[in-house]
Amino acid sequence: MTGMSRRTQTLLIIVGAVMFAVAPLLIALAPNEATMGLVAKIVYFHVPVWFMMFLAVFICGIASGVYLFKGLPEADRLAVSAAELAVLFGFMGLTTGPLWARVSWGVWWPWDVRTTLALILEMNFVAYLLLRKYGGPGAEKLAAGVALFGMFNVPFVYVSVNVWRTLHPETTVVPTLPAAMAGPFWWCVVAYLTLFLVMLGGRRRLEDQRAKLDELRFAYEEE
Amino acid sequence: MAVSLVDFFRVAWLVMRKDVRIESRSREVLYTTSFFAASCVLVFSFAFVRAGRPVDGAEAGIVWVALAYAGQLALGRAFERELHQDALRGLLLAPVERAAIFVGKLLGIMLLMVLVEAVVIFFVSLFFSTAFFEYPVLFVGLLASGTIGFAVVGTLFAAMLTRAKSRAVLLPVLLYPVTVPVLIAGVNGTLSLIQADPNLDLARFWLALVTFFDVVFLTLALWTFEPLMTE
Tens digits of per-residue pLDDT, A137-157? Predict the structure, then answer.
């Protein structure tokens, strides 16, 4: 697992910056959603953030599995970088979600399946970070187990919250996007993906350098 | 293969018997956990009883939350015991399948949880006059599969946390997000059985969901116990 080269990183930063600069224009020009109006525009930021959280959860889960069974320290460094991004994007999703819910459904927290799943995943990955921070030496390995369990838990949480919620009045589901809105929407998804990759690459490089520094320190102390 | 499977369960049986024997000498975990579970039920009664009647359906939630809290307490204590004079390390050094040790610990925890469940259900039935056993097979099935799911995840996490600092507080922090499906299914499955108009199909669905959860997470736990317990 080699890290992203510096050139790719710079290229991604430029592409991402341009895409984020253009995104507000595209969003402003896109037609308003028929029933929700202006408020529905939050979807261009809220949904891509949610996609990125999921991406981070799966990257962290798979990398943790690799670390647990193969013992590769690189996999652990990738996992912790992804876990932090899962928590960060999860927090963004959990902040923008209630803002939308308040205006369109009248409540801050609608207990709909996606918001609740996001909350539980957020808790799972905050727990992962807490364990790494406060678990003492060797906690990385234990945290890898938590990440793996968290990833496998996704379908169970989804199904259980979904069925539990159908016992209550259904909340309106975001309608399928017409073409004029799909363009800017996918634009934003790609913009967020570049941001995600830049952050993941940067965070991983930091972990790599930290590991290298530790190695050098050990070598120095042994001399 | 057949012989090794017999060996596997023999080791699991021996580990469980060891735990049961230690517990039966002091009965510390059983008595304290059962008493704690009964106090939980009492605390919930003050929260959910209005004018002498429980809030509609509150019993299902009370049973499962009391079980989860009591289970968490028992898990923490059961593994705290293994830390005395490095007992767990000795156990792990034994030339046997690590997964068999896990299954032995799991069975011990489950046995303890079943006893606590009896206490909780007795008190909830007494305080709220709830008829839990109208559909005994489904209700016992839900309880059993929920106990397995909670105990599988809990035993693995409590076992691995013996190597960590601040384990007392980290156990619930790790345990609840992962066991959310079990709690949702347990509460709603029980609710669909005790409500005025029982919904058996829904209860069967929840039972199937938890059973599936058990299979997936038991496999995962058996698979990860070895690397998680290796320093």
Answer: 889 999 999 999 999 999 999
CB-based contacts of A115, cutoff 8 Å, min separation 6: A94, A97, A98, A101, A109
Q: Name the residue type at position B194.
A: I
Residue B111 belongs to a domain: yes
Which residue in the block uniquely carries the two structure tokens 């968490």?
Answer: B72
Integer Cα distance of A51 and A57 in angstroms: 10
Task: Answer whether residue B1 is part of any domain.
Answer: no
- What domain count does chain B have? 1
Alpha helices in A31-72 (DSSP H): 43-70
Instruction: Give the Cα separation of A46 and A42 in Å (integer).
Output: 6
| pTM attached to this predicted model | 0.89
Residue ranges making up the domain that contains B19: 11-229
CA distance A127 to B177: 8
Is A156–B177 a contact, with Cβ atoms under 8 angstroms apart? no
A63 near A78, Cβ under 8 Å?
yes
How many interface pairs between A and B have CB atoms less than 8 angstroms apart?
89
What sign does the CA torsion over B16, B22, B27, B32 have? negative
Q: Do A138 and B174 touch (CB under 8 A)?
A: no
Q: What is the pLDDT of residues B5-30, one digit of tens each?
A: 899 999 999 999 999 999 999 899 99
- Do residues A115 and A101 make contact, with C-beta atoms less than 8 angstroms apart? yes
